[in-house]
Structures are given as structure tokens and as C-alpha cells.
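Q: What residues go here?
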């Protein structure tokens, strides 16, 4: 890993850093997977091409400050993680989102990445609450959030319409006041 990339956190082999153009081929490869896209909103393209990765990179490059980051494992790009800060009365909250390329699942990478971006969010962004909604069949992601100390707050019945079927959404959140430094 070159030292000129902006790093926002590191835990052993897992690093969160700015996304670079060099990540785009792997981003497109790992994103072009229905086992990934079935857990994400329909705004996440499927199939996912290199042009989709380039469009995403352009959007991220125009953000200031950026809240989308690359997840690196043992020096290589493996996925993305983001915090989308709310507006108006929700401006003290941020929604977390993430994915890891399938070859790297079940190595504890997402757990480390979520902990790192949570710490970054509470310490560097002016937010007090990080939340997300998980599709009810996505047990792995719920497990990650539980391991990171997020609380299950609610189940929104039939909130998700994905691939022609209705699913419940499981809402998780973590509060800054419950997050010891
Ligand atoms: C969800 C995702 C981010 C998890 O990443 P990861 O790096 O594999 O996560 P971790 O290794 O840190 O933890 C995964 C945990 O889920 C568990 N798990 C995996 N599959 C599971 C399943 N089908 N049912 C229950 N638990 C499962 C693992 O055993 C592990 O728990 P453990 O450490 O107690 O053994 C990854 O699978 C992914 O990117 N999926 C597609 C996109 C996605 O779902 N994004 C999140 C949208 S909210």
C-alpha cells in the first residue's frame, strides 16, 4: 500500500482509506455478484460494469468531505464502506453501508471495517447516531452489526420489495454516548 493515500483507520490487516482509480477493476469484479447485490438497494447496479465503477468514483471524487472509503485487506482492495450523513433534523445521524468481495467473506473484515468507520464517524464527523436497515434474510450483516455493538431497534414489516418479493427490514443503530473511546 502506498503511503500517499488518505487512511482513516487501521486494525491489523484491515485498512480504511480513500478510494482510488486503481481500485475500480476489482470494485467492478466484486460488485458484479448477485450474492452482493441481492442485499443492497436497487440503485446498486446488477450487472455491475467497469463504467458503473467509474461513475461511482466520479461521484465520490466530487464529495467534500468524502464519506465513501475503500476497505483494504493485506494490502489489497476488498470492498467499500460509507457513512451517509443526514440532513435537516437528521443531520446528527449517519447511515452506514458496506460490502466485501465474496472471496474475502468470513474473515472478520467487515467487523473490523464497521468498528473503524464507527470510531471515525463519532470522533471526526459531528454525528451521534449511526444506523442502517438490513434485509431480514441477511444474517451475516446482522451478525456483523451485533458483533460491533449495534442494537436491534425495530423490525419494519414488509418494508423491502426486492427481486419481486416483500421482506422485513431489521433496523440497527449505535449511539455515540454508548460508544466508549
Ligand atoms: C455482510 C458482509 C459485509 C459480511 O462481511 P464479512 O467480512 O464476511 O463479515 P465478518 O467476517 O466480519 O462477519 C460475518 C459473520 O457472519 C456470520 N455469517 C456468515 N454467513 C452467515 C449466515 N448465513 N447466517 C448466519 N451467520 C452468518 C459469520 O460466521 C460471521 O460471524 P462469526 O464471526 O461470529 O463467525 C458480506 O457478506 C457482504 O458484503 N455481503 C454482501 C453485501 C451486504 O450484505 N452488505 C451489507 C448490506 S446491509
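A:
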Amino acid at each position: 500500500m502506498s503511503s500517499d493515500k488518505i487512511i482513516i483507520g487501521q486494525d491489523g490487516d484491515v485498512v480504511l482509506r480513500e478510494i482510488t482509480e486503481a481500485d475500480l477493476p476489482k470494485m467492478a469484479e466484486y460488485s458484479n455478484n448477485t450474492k452482493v447485490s441481492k442485499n443492497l438497494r436497487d440503485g446498486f447496479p446488477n450487472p455491475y460494469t467497469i463504467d458503473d465503477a467509474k461513475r461511482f468514483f466520479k461521484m465520490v471524487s466530487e464529495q467534500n468531505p468524502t464519506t465513501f472509503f475503500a476497505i483494504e485487506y493485506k494490502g489489497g482492495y476488498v470492498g467499500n464502506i460509507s457513512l451517509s450523513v443526514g440532513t435537516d433534523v437528521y443531520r446528527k445521524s449517519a447511515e452506514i453501508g458496506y460490502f466485501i468481495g465474496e472471496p474475502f467473506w468470513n474473515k472478520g473484515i467487515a467487523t473490523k471495517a464497521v468498528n473503524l468507520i464507527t470510531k471515525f464517524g463519532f470522533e471526526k464527523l459531528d454525528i451521534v447516531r449511526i444506523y442502517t436497515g438490513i434485509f431480514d434474510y441477511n444474517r451475516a450483516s446482522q451478525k456483523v452489526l451485533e458483533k460491533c455493538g449495534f442494537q436491534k431497534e425495530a423490525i419494519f414489516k414488509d418494508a423491502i420489495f426486492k427481486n419481486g418479493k416483500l421482506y422485513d427490514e431489521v433496523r440497527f443503530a449505535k449511539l455515540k454516548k454508548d460508544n466508549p473511546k
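A: Context that may help when evaluating the design: Residues 36, 39-40, 98-100, 105-111, 132, 134, 138-141, 143-144 surround coenzyme A (CB under 6 Å). The helical segments are 24-31, 34-37, 50-61, 109-124, 139-147.
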